[in-house]
Amino acid sequence: ELSHNVAANVTEKTAARFGRCCRDAAKHCVGRTAGQRRVSPQAVCGYGSQDALPFRAIKEGELYFQEEREVNLVELALATNIPKGCAETAVRVHVSYLDGKGNLEPQGAVPSAVSTLTDDLLKYYQHVTRAVLGDDPQLMKVALQDLQSNSKIAALLPYFVYVVSGVKSVSHDLEQLHRLLHIAGSLVQNPFLCLGSYVRSLVASVTYCVLEPLAASINPLNDHWTLRDAAAMLLSRIFWTHGDPGSGLYHQILLSLQKVLADPVRPLCSHYGAVVGLHALGWKAVERVLYPHLSTYWGGLQAVLDDYSVSNAQVKADGHKVYGAILVSHGGGDGAGGRAEGGTRRFIIAGRQVGRRCQGRLFQTSFPQHHGPGHVSRYAQKLPMIGRTARPPRRWARSEYSLGLLL
Predict the structure, then answer these.
(1) Nearest to 326 by CA among 378, 375, 384
(2) Which domain CATH number covers 175?
(3) How many domains does the chain fold into?
(4) Residue 349 belongs to what H/E stretch?
């Protein structure tokens, strides 16, 4: 038997050694886990079953072991369903909306659970959408003003973005397209909203209005050119206010405009949208995309403008639109005269389609004059003048600058 003092001394040393062993074991586990993370080993197959492991006890004592079934090598050799190798590790992503609640719709579906919002937000969403898409212009103006200044509608951002994405379904209605662009503009101007990942969704919807041949553009009486101008300005505003330089949004927009401009199959209204889009993004975009492509593009445009057949009247009118947009982006008309009294500086492209049996139709397009910096003239390219000059041009009774074209 040990004395009390010896037992106390042995107990103290034993406790110290036991604590040291526990700490060493913990260090070993932490180091092993960290090492495995650095090495990043492949997933181990065969040990991830959710079924309970069967255990059996031996007859000689209370000893349990995992039961393993016997494998018949003959059946395995003659089997036709040869197991394949381990599949590659994959990651599946599921999107949750708003406050983190998982959506019940299939992956990629638009959230229809508007009822998850509070009653006040739900009423606000319904009233604003009905006011903007309704028939009362004064009510629409009030709704848009509140939409661009309300600080408590962050939860409604994905729903309004979804409303704006409906431009494809109303491409036949210019008025509805203008109203959807107004909603997008109000969201962009709201200083309390962080668009975040919704910027690309808005850019896609606005770019559709700029570049695509809308169903409303089939009728020449529909002024879809104004819609493209407004959408181009909104596209520029979205980029300059919410575009992250590191996100690649600028290059994505330029690539979309360049593809449309370089595609000769696209209609002239799409080419017009590409030109006004480049002009809205600034002179650097014009210098980077339009100027290098202008010498190639001008041949096709000149062929359209030199076609004097009456059947080509509408296409030729669209060609004048594209030509005027190129002049505006180029800075054409600078220094042609002073500012008109009481008005903005503008210039006009006008002309008449002349046929053998009829006078044809009159073309007249007014463009705002370029007020960009003076360095644009450094990249000036001499654009060929269109039209015949054998007869004196008609004097248009307007205070703005005019480019008379006798076609």
Answers:
(1) 384
(2) 1.25.40.770
(3) 2
(4) strand 346-352
Per the structure, the complete domain to which residue 204 belongs is given by 115-239
Is 105 contained in some domain? no
Residue-level pLDDT at 84: 58
pLDDT of residue 327: 85
Contacts 24+ apart (CB under 8 A), 257-266: 257/211, 257/285, 257/289, 258/289, 258/293, 260/211, 261/289, 261/290, 261/293, 261/297, 262/293, 262/297, 264/300, 266/213
The pLDDT of residue 183 is 94
Are 223 and 314 within one domain?
A: no
Question: Is residue 209 in a domain?
Answer: yes
pLDDT of residue 317: 86
Estimate to the nearest angstrom the gap between the alpha carbon of 251 and the chain centroid. Answer: 12
185 lies in some domain: yes
Listed as ranges, residues in the chain with pLDDT below 70 are: 1-2, 27-53, 76, 79-116, 244-246, 331-407
187/183 Cα distance (integer angstroms): 6
Instruction: Say whether both 128 and 226 belong to one domain.
Output: yes
- The sign of the dihedral angle between the CA atoms of 317, 224, 395, 327 is negative
In this structure, is the dihedral angle defined by the CA atoms of residues 90, 93, 94 and 99, taken in order, positive or negative? positive
The residues facing 368 across adjacent strands are 346
Are 230 and 312 within one domain?
A: no
Q: How many CB atoms lie within 10 A of CB 24?
A: 10
Residue where one domain finishes, among candidates 192, 216, 239:
239
In a domain? residue 207: yes
pTM equals: 0.57
> Which contacts (CB < 8 Å, 24+ apart) does range 370-377 have?
370/328, 370/329, 370/330, 370/331, 370/332, 370/333, 370/334, 371/345, 372/283, 372/331, 373/283, 375/283, 376/283, 376/330, 376/331, 377/331, 377/334
Domain end, chosen from 184, 205, 239, is at 239
Asked if 140 and 134 touch (Cβ cutoff 8 Å), the reply is yes
Q: What is the pLDDT of residue 3?
A: 77
